[in-house]
């Protein structure tokens, strides 16, 4: 899986469909209902599973889990209970999987440190707060509901027994809704440690008291408080917008009805803590031991209170998730309305796809009969992906494309609300472009079917309606799905008005389209992979090697040689080399390659810079379908922002890595802050190659 992911990190669009895993990869599996909710920008609430495997006895654990999920659904959100089953991290569990975990005899309590071991040994267990945060953030979920978080244990200043929940809150940008910290812990030092980690802590409701799980008061105040779901959503949105890479802890006091028994439970807790100490119970065994002992001493009242506060947290967390979703949609709608009246410095013309990935649960699929598996939907298309990327990186590109007037079209426009889609036409009696891939359990493509005919409706006549916007733009992006006549028309405008054109080929066959005529001489940039670069040269009648090279040395040599003829007219050729990285070819200037557009024709000294690919492991990879488009979008953004070449390329590499770790082709977390090269250390220096 790792080699396949690395080899495709910088590929794009339809050519990568055989590895478009969507909600499944080798380690993380997203339930179809969760994946669809995320794709539709609907509220999703993550839930942990140690409460199922370690927090309560059967059948209370199962009934509580199903009740909590029902509460989340009743509040209009989708529950995503996280658990590990046979070495796979499941984000969202079926009823059968919930039942399996609730009765499993030897479940592992899975924290951050345990994930690699549990996965390598194909074990099963419940995820703690820290492991659940990791999985939820990987899937793009912003709100996570739990009972209570871990903290600094009593005498923690000597034992250094500090829960991984606290450090995870300091490095994972997700909102955790809990009933505070259990009173068996050192609450004061826990709050101090959270402050050190940079975690924003707020009590939910009218009180400023920080709750202590079974009690609405711990003797400490929260640094902040929010009174409504809307205020909480605004706090979360602010945290995410700032790009702080730390989380938010929202502490919800236990309901008044159950708080009445708080003192009795507190007395039992103190007795249980002493007994655990006398019995020399330590580490991760302390909490489950104490909870079980407290349940015995209170004759079940602590369990009832525990269930009640979890139910309450689920209601509050779901309302917050819904408010956050509503806020994001409202801002996207406002942004799009503003986009309609805003002149774009960039225009992107290309395809939109609605993709269906059918993934079997067996290594071999039997045709002619029903096979067990799952189907998920996502949104792609090279042009759409690049416009999406630019929209998240400080630009407002006008996107020109075509869809059918069908349900797929409605889904596309709903997902793309953050983009300026005023140039996308709905065509009657046409079908929105769709692609269906049937994939085996190990990710191999068994069958692919595509209906891309509507791309041919992005005609010269339609695009010419936007001639004023095209003529005034700084840069126009084209993808290879467009008809040749449309590409030629845009290139003629580029020549007339001195417009920079970026050509993004989508596969080897379509790469040659501008090169069938003199149109290619009006391109400024092209970003082919090596196979597409071969196609461009062959179309121009330039000899090419019979086979693609294997070694890095030969790959660079061939890529430089094949880029040289194109640089007679193109300003820059960016060759994506898969697992090897990126080669930037163009004008050699002061030890670098000048990516900024030429202001006048002149004789140039040519050179190339080779940038190694970022290290991406199989564990980090969720989806390889949009990495190349993310790279291109971030490169374009960097060029438009007048950044130096190193910054532009590194922005692209970081954007590609974000895409790999997201279920979406363009990661929703993509932002200028997320791809800021200065926040990432130890960049390898690029290698300069002279072009003769």
Describe this entry's structure for a reader:
- This protein folds into 3 domains: 25-329, Indigoidine synthase fold, CATH 3.40.1790.10; 336-488, Ribokinase (UDP-N-acetylmuramoyl-L-alanine:D-glutamate ligase, 3-Layer(aba) Sandwich), CATH 3.40.1190; 524-692, Ribokinase (UDP-N-acetylmuramoyl-L-alanine:D-glutamate ligase, 3-Layer(aba) Sandwich), CATH 3.40.1190.20.
- The protein contains 24 helices and 26 strands.
- The protein starts with a helix and ends with a strand.
- The chain is an alpha/beta fold and 692 residues long.
- Strands 1, 2, 3, 4, 5, 6, 7, 8, 9, 10 and 11 form an 11-stranded mixed β-sheet that branches. Strands 12, 15, 16, 19, 20, 21, 22, 23, 24, 25 and 26 form an 11-stranded mixed β-sheet that branches.
Number of domains: 3
CATH architecture of the largest domain: 3-Layer(aba) Sandwich
- Average residue-wise pLDDT: 86
CATH class of the largest domain: Alpha Beta
CATH superfamily of the largest domain: Indigoidine synthase domain
CATH topology of the largest domain, by name, is Indigoidine synthase fold
Structural class comes to alpha/beta
């Amino acid at each position: 899986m790792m080699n396949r992911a690395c080899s495709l990190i910088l590929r794009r669009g339809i050519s990568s469909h055989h590895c478009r895993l969507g909600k499944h990869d080798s380690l993380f599996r997203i339930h179809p209902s969760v994946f669809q909710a995320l794709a539709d920008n609907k509220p999703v609430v993550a839930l942990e599973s140690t409460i199922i495997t370690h927090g309560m006895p059967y059948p209370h654990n199962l009934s509580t889990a199903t009740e909590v999920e029902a509460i989340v659904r009743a509040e209009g959100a989708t529950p995503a209970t996280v658990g590990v089953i046979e070495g796979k991290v499941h984000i969202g569990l079926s009823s059968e999987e919930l039942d399996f975990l609730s009765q499993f005899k030897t479940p592992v309590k899975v924290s951050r440190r345990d994930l690699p071991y549990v996965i390598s040994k194909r074990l099963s267990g419940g995820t703690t707060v820290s492991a659940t945060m990791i999985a939820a953030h990987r899937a793009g979920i912003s709100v996570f509901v739990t009972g209570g978080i871990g903290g600094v244990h009593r005498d923690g200043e000597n034992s250094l027994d500090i829960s991984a929940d606290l450090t995870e809150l300091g490095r994972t940008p997700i909102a955790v809704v809990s009933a505070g910290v259990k009173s068996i812990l050192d609450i004061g030092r826990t709050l101090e440690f959270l402050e050190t980690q940079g975690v924003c802590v707020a009590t939910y409701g009218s009180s400023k008291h920080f709750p202590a799980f079974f009690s609405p008061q711990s003797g400490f105040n929260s640094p902040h408080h929010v009174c409504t779901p809307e205020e909480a959503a605004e706090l979360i949105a602010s945290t995410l917008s700032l790009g702080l890479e730390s989380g938010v802890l929202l502490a919800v006091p236990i309901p008044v009805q159950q708080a009445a028994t708080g003192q009795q439970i507190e007395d039992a807790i103190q007795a249980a803590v002493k007994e655990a100490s006398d019995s020399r119970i330590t580490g991760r065994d302390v909490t489950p031991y104490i909870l079980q002992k407290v349940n015995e001493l209170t004759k079940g009242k602590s369990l009832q209170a525990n269930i009640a506060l979890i139910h309450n947290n689920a209601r509050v967390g779901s309302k917050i998730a819904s408010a956050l979703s509503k806020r994001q949609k409202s801002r996207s709608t406002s942004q799009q309305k503003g986009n309609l009246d805003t002149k774009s410095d960039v225009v992107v013309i290309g395809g939109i796809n609605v993709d269906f990935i059918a993934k079997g649960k067996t290594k071999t699929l039997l045709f002619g009969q029903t096979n067990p598996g799952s189907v998920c939907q996502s949104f792609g298309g090279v042009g759409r992906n690049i416009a999406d990327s630019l929209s998240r990186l400080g630009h407002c590109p006008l996107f020109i494309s075509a869809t059918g007037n069908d349900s797929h079209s409605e889904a596309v426009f709903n997902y793309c609300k953050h983009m300026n889609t005023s140039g996308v036409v709905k065509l009657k009696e046409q079908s929105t472009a769709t692609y269906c891939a049937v994939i085996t359990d190990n990710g191999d493509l068994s069958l692919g079917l595509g209906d891309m005919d509507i791309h041919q409706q992005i005609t010269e006549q339609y695009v010419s309606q936007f001639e004023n916007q095209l003529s005034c733009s700084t840069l126009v992006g084209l993808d290879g799905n467009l008809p040749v006549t449309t590409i030629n028309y845009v290139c003629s405008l580029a020549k007339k008005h001195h417009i920079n054109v970026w050509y993004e080929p989508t596969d080897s066959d379509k790469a040659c389209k501008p090169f069938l005529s003199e149109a290619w001489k009006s391109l400024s940039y092209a970003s082919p992979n090596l196979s597409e670069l071969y196609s461009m040269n062959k179309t121009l009648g330039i000899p090419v090697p019979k086979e693609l090279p294997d070694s890095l040395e030969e790959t660079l040599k061939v890529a430089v040689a094949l880029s040289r003829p194109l640089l007679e007219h193109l300003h820059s050729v960016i060759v994506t080399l898969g697992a090897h990285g990126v080669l930037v070819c163009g004008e050699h200037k002061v030890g670098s390659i000048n990516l900024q557009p030429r202001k006048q024709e002149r004789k140039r000294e040519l050179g190339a810079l080779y940038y190694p690919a970022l290290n991406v492991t199989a564990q980090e990879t969720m989806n390889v379908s949009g990495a190349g488009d993310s790279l291109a979008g971030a490169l374009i953004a960097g060029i438009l922002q007048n950044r130096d070449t190193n910054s532009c390329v590194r922005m692209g590499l970081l954007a590609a890595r974000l895409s790999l770790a997201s279920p979406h082709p363009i990661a929703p977390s993509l932002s200028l802050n997320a791809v800021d090269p200065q926040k990432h250390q130890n960049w390898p220096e690029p290698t300069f190659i002279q072009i003769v």
